[in-house]
Amino acid sequence: MSTTSTSVTGGGEHSNDLERSIDWKQGLAIASGVPLLILPSLGYFPLWVASAAILIWGLSVLQGFMQNLAYAELATTFPKASGLPGFAQNVFKTQNYDGNYDKGKLIGGFSAWSYWFAWNPVLAIFAILVGSYLHGLFPVLGTMFTEYQLSLMSGGVIFSVLLIINCFGLKDSAILGYILAAISLIPLVVMTVTPFAIGAVEISNITNSWLPTDWSWDMHHILILFGLFAIAQWSACAWETAAIYGPEYKKPGTDVPKALFVCGAICLFSFVLVQAAVIGVLGVDGVLAEPLSPMIPVAEAAFGKAGAMIAIIMLIAAMILIIQTAYLGSARAMHSMATEGNLPRVFGKLNSRGTPVVAMVVIGLFNLILISMGTPAAILAASAIGYTCANGISLFAYVKAKNNPNFANLDRPFKAPKGWKNVALLFGLFNIPLCLIGVVYLNSLEVGWFSTWVGFIVLGMYLPIWLYTQFEARSQPEVALNAAAGD
Fold this sequence. Notes:
Elements: H1 24-31, H2 45-49, H3 53-77, H4 83-92, H5 103-119, H6 122-137, H7 139-144, H8 147-166, H9 170-197, H10 203-207, H11 219-236, H12 252-289, H13 295-303, H14 305-339, H15 357-370, H16 376-403, H17 420-446, H18 450-460, H19 462-475, H20 477-483
C-alpha cells in the first residue's frame, strides 16, 4: 500500500527526492532555535496574566510533549513524509481515488498550508525585531533609516544569505545551526541563569503579582486564556519541527524521537526560566515598560551596560538562528504539498543538493511583504491561527491513522503509549475549536480585526490554489504520474 507520493532514496530516482543526510543531533541543531520563539511574547503575556505567564509557558511545553508523542509515532509510521504537513496529507487522502477532487486530500493539504502559514511569518517577525535592536544599538542608524526600513533591509540581507547557504543542502544548514546555537543559545542561558545566581531575581516580583487585580474567571477571561494558550503553543510546542525532516534523517525510527524529546527538554527549561528571570528582575510593570526587548535590562542588571551591548549582539545571532529554522520548515512544507499534488508542481522542484529553492525564494518575498504589517504582535496573531489549525488537524490525523485499517499493518518503529489516540483527540479538540476561538477573540481585543482577517484570507487562498493544482494535474497527467513514482 502506498504511504506517500514521495520516494526518498538518498539520491533519488527522480528530482523531487529529499536526501537522507542528517542524524538526530543535526536535526536538533536546526530545531534548536525554537526556544527563541519566546522573545516576541516575553512582554505580551504579562500584559494579560502578569506572573502567571510563567505557568502558561510551562503548561504549553508539556502540551507539546503530549502532542509530539503522537507526531513522533506518525514520523516513524510515515518516514518519507515531511513532518506535520506530510502526516496529514498521507492520512486524509483517499486511497486509490480516481475522481477529480478528493475532499480528504483537500483537508490534508489545508493542514499543510496552515502549518506553512504558521512557520512562514517567523521570518518577518524576527526581521522586524532585528531592525528594532539595530535601531537601538546604533543610534546613527536612527538618523539615516526608520525602524521599518532597517527591518526591511535586515530581512532582505538575512533571507538572501540563508537562501545561498541552504542551496548547498540540509547538512550544511545543520552546521550553520551548530555555529549559531553556540553563539546565541548558550549566552541566552547564561543571561537567564546569572540573575538567579547573583540574587538579582526578586521572588516577590513574581508572587506579589501572580494575576492582574481585575482578573476573574468569567467567559471573557477564559477566552483570553484559550487565546494565550494558542499563541503560547506557537512558541512552546513548535519543537515538533524536528520531525519535519523525517525524509532526511538517516535513521528516522530512532533519530526523530531523540531529536524531538531532547529539544523538548531544552524548551521546558528555557521557556519557564526565561520568563521567570525577566519578571523576577524587572517586575511585571518593568516588563511592560520594555515589551519588545525586556532581555536588555535583564542583561544590564546581570552584567552592566557592557552586558546589554553583548546581549543585543547575541540576540540578533539568535534571531538569525530561528529565521533559519522557520525558513527550512516552511520550505519543506511547500515541497511536501507539491509532491502530494496539493500545490503547483513548481514548488516541489529541488536543486542538485536537494533544496527546494523555488519555495524558499517565494517565502522570502512573501515575508518582505509581511514586514509591512509593522509589529510582531500583529503578524504573530495571524500566524497563530494557522498553527492552531495545523495542530488540530494533525492530531485528528493521528486518531484516524490509529483507527483506519488501511494503516494497521504499517511498521511503527516508535509507538506512543497505549491509548494515546484518546489523548491526541483531547488535544485536537483543545486546538479546534477552543484555542482557535480564543485566539480570534484575543486578537480582536489586542490588535483589532486586521490580523485576524489577514490570517483567514491567507488560509482561504488555499482553496483556489488547490483547485488550480488539481486542474494542472488533470491537464498534464504525466506530471501526476511522475509525482506518484515513489508509490
